[in-house]
Amino acid sequence: MNMQLEKMKQNQEYERRKRLAEEKHKEWVQKKRQEERRERKRKLSKEMAEKATRELEKMQLQEKAEVKFKEWLQKKRAEEAEKKKKEKEKEKEREAELQDKRAKSEKIFKEWLQNARNKPQPALNGRGFPHGKSTGLNDYSYYGISQRNRF
């Protein structure tokens, strides 16, 4: 009877320990699942934060690039305008120089024309031109041609 009682106590102890072990195992599994959930949430929030940071950096970089591009474009347009302005000034200078040349040429031509009218006419009564008309002489020395080269 004592042995049976002892055996029963051992079985009860074994069952109690078994239940206790199962409960501890369930608690451990539950804690593990909660910990894994928390870890996943933490990782997810960290990834989201990193993604948001990358997006923000990307946007800032793009804004900087746009600002730089606008500055470059503005500078390029200013250079282009300056270049056109210089070309117009050069063209005006060329036009003014050309106008001056024309005016000087015209003045010199008018002076020459005035002087040419006032100059005495050369005597046309030289050899072969009596009274200003050609006599039709075949004087090759007059034309600067030698006897050998005339034909």
TrEMBL record:
Protein name: Coiled-coil domain-containing protein
TM region positions: none
Record's compositionally biased regions (Basic and acidic residues): 1-38, 45-60
Positions of the Coiled-coil domain: 3-135
Annotated region (Disordered), positions in chain: 1-60, 77-102, 115-140
Domain of life: Eukaryota
InterPro entries recorded: CCDC34, CCDC34/181
